[in-house]
Amino acid sequence: MMRGPGTGALLGRALARSAENSGATVEVDSCDTRPWFSATLSGAHHAFAITAPVGDAVTNWLRSLPQQPLPLSGHLVADLAVAHAVEHAGRLHLRIDALTVAAA
Hints:
Strand order of the largest sheet: 1-2-4-3
Strand content: over 45%
Helix content: 10-25%
């Protein structure tokens, strides 16, 4: 039985902290998490819906995101990508996909 927030919630918080540390303000609106398994590993696929004010701060954060450390207790971020980005009414609407793997 898992106690406390799940990996998706923890990664969402790490993304928000990463943005804040880069001078950007983002809102993690939702996260869809699905379990993932291979022959030797287990983890989860995460799809985050994120919104942010359009501007240089969020653009710079997104450029630096692949190099940003996103610490997760007991898990590693194996892959992370901006899957979709649309600007509407001064807001950037993003979908960020991530794959986490349970640390051995």
